[in-house]
Amino acid sequence: MIDFTGKVVLITGGGSGLGRAAALAISKQGAKLVLVDMNKDSLEESKKEVLAAAPDAAVEIFEANVTNEEEVQNYVKFTLDKFGQIDGFFNNAGIEGKQNLTEDYGSDEFQKVISVNLNGVFFGMKHVLKVMKEQGSGSIVNTASVGGIRGVGNQSGYAASKHGVVGLTRNSGVEYGQYGISINAIAPGAIMTPMVEGSLKQMAGDNWEAAGKEFVSVNPMKRFGQPEEVGNLVAFLLSDSSRFINASVITIDGGQSYKY
């Protein structure tokens, strides 16, 4: 049984998608939450949904840009000021970026995706790890992607950033296991989130729904994954039930990455 009673969990990208799904899953198990995002309206909506699902939950929201190290330090400080500890960290904020062949991929666009998806994850780890090391305990889950373990056509920046997240996860898991900290990554495939919907619209425009059906037709499970399925995995990886899982990357994609 997963129990977060007395635990504090920090979630970036908490305003929508996987961040919101994880918040809902974890709040039902008694955690105190801090949700971080750039979009205040999305954060307010996430808080509303959390409180509807878990009326007694303690949930705070904080606006921040994860590409700015000072703002990352600020959300860590805010969490400590509110709750005094950080037991779990879902380091999840990310973007897809524009789709294009590598030769046509804009340099500014590449830097933008790397800044959010890789630098933002690094800054979060850097400052949360200091807290967890002093505590002598903690769990971190970084959001990678199946694009971080194999190629993804027309998404050079995204794939490069997510491969970087995988490297950071494995390296830091090796470094910090001795301090009672577990660090893992999830590698979602096609999960029906606003990001995936946006990706389909980039590829197919108004025909995105039909393109989505065609896309999942080759998945062994013949469907998109749902955010709550990922949220439940994150809850498990942040819980005491998974403490000996460390420096690992857990794929959640219906088996598509392993299909010939």
Automatic annotation (TrEMBL):
One of its GO terms (molecular function) is glucose 1-dehydrogenase [NAD(P)+] activity. SMART domains: PKS_KR (SM00822). Transmembrane segments: none annotated. Residues 7-189 form the Ketoreductase domain. It is an enzyme of class 1 (oxidoreductase). The keyword NAD applies. It comes from the Bacteria. The keyword Nucleotide-binding does not apply. Its EC number is 1.1.1.47. Keywords: NAD, Oxidoreductase. Belongs to the short-chain dehydrogenases/reductases (SDR) family. NCBIfam families: PRK07231.1. This is Glucose 1-dehydrogenase.
